[in-house]
Design a protein that fits this description.
Layout lengths: L18 H4 L9 E4 L5 H12 L3 E6 L2 H8 L6 E5 L5 H14 L5 E4 L10 E2 L3 E2 H22 L5 E5 L23 H22 L6 E6 L13 H6 L11 H6 L3 H4 L1 H8 L10 E3 L2 E2 L22 H17 L1
Parallel strand pairs: 1-2, 1-4, 2-3, 4-7, 7-8, 8-9
Antiparallel strand pairs: 5-6, 9-10
Helix pairs in contact: 4-5, 5-6, 6-11
Length: about 325
């Protein structure tokens, strides 16, 4: 793909559309979906909306008690299975169980993640944001490839973010082994990695007619912000001095129901046929970032997140990381 593929289409939905609105004319009976992080924040809304339209939804869970409480009120076919994205053994075990239990997988929603957290290591010493947000999902998707390739027109939707603008891939020191850790740059790198992963995956799904997309869900107050202090969110402009959402946040932030909409649009919209690997926002394909726009920090996609060569380099590097783990 190229930046010319990042051309918005005539979507009937918009930034404040809800997931239920996006799926209003969609029938998902007989479809199967896996939603990581599907018991909190926008992941919970994604799982709820899919189940409400008839999909059979599997939610991998790291915290069974929390998941049971969150999912108890969701009607429809929703079940859980153990998995922790920071523990590759559990990721591989989950994938093996899905390959044994399912005959097809129509939708894989790589939704879970962490944001701007203190420096931590997972697996064989990976920086935690890159390790959980990207490598955990990379391993999961690879493990589920037999199902995805066996399913006609499967779709994989991976949650990136406008934070990709904060950093490309730091190829010389991906895991901050030699450079000073910066939690926002690390988050930006992880979100760039997710966009590049969706790009690379799109080529590997071609033989079965599958599609892969990355999405920016928008700004949403969810448990994702748990590592940020009130003071940090005031500096970011998300909260006012009184600790309440700022005017900026009130105007631009979305509810969890609205935050799930771009994911669900990418998972189901017929407008995305033939648009493999694109980055989406506000229920549409995102346009390339306009550096002259006052909204350049918040809207559009930067070229480094849509680069085929970098996507292939990241794919090869990620496979090496998993082989060494």
């Amino acid at each position: 793909m190229s930046m010319s593929d990042q051309t918005p289409v005539q979507s009937e939905f918009h930034a404040k559309s809800t997931g239920d609105e996006v799926l209003s004319a969609i029938d998902l009976n007989g479809k199967t979906a896996v939603v990581t992080g599907g018991y909190s924040g926008i992941g919970l809304e994604t799982a709820r909306s899919l189940a409400a339209k008839g999909a059979s939804v599997v939610v991998p869970v790291r915290s069974p008690g929390k998941a049971a409480n969150a999912l108890a009120a969701i009607p429809g076919d929703v079940r859980t299975a153990p998995m922790d994205l920071s523990d590759l053994a559990t990721v591989r075990s989950f994938a093996e169980s899905m390959n044994a239990d399912l005959s097809s997988l129509d939708l894989l929603i790589n939704n879970a993640g962490i944001m701007a957290c203190p420096e931590a290591r997972v697996g064989p010493g990976w920086e935690s944001q890159f390790g959980i947000c990207h490598l955990g999902h990379f391993a999961l998707t690879q493990g589920l490839m037999p199902l995805l390739l066996n399913t006609e027109k499967a779709r994989v939707v991976s949650l990136s973010s406008t934070a990709h603008k904060m950093s490309g891939i730091n190829w010389d020191d991906v895991h901050y082994e030699h450079t000073e850790y910066d939690k926002w740059q690390a988050y930006g790198q992880a979100k760039t990695a997710i966009a590049l992963f969706a790009n690379g995956l799109s080529r590997r799904l071609q033989e079965s007619g599958g599609l892969s997309f990355s999405v920016h869900p928008g700004g949403i107050f969810t448990p994702l912000q748990r590592h940020l202090s009130k003071e940090e969110m005031i500096v970011l402009g998300w909260l006012g001095e009184d600790g309440e959402p700022s005017e900026l946040a009130k105007a631009g932030f979305k509810s969890p129901e609205q935050g799930a909409s771009t994911t669900l649009w990418a998972a189901t919209s017929p407008l995305l046929e033939g648009k493999a690997g694109v980055y989406c926002e506000d229920c549409n394909i995102a346009a390339p970032t306009d550096p002259e726009s006052p909204m350049a920090r918040y809207l559009g996609v930067d070229a480094h997140a849509c680069d085929d060569d970098q996507a292939e380099r990241l794919w090869d590097q990620s496979e090496t990381y998993l082989q060494d783990a």
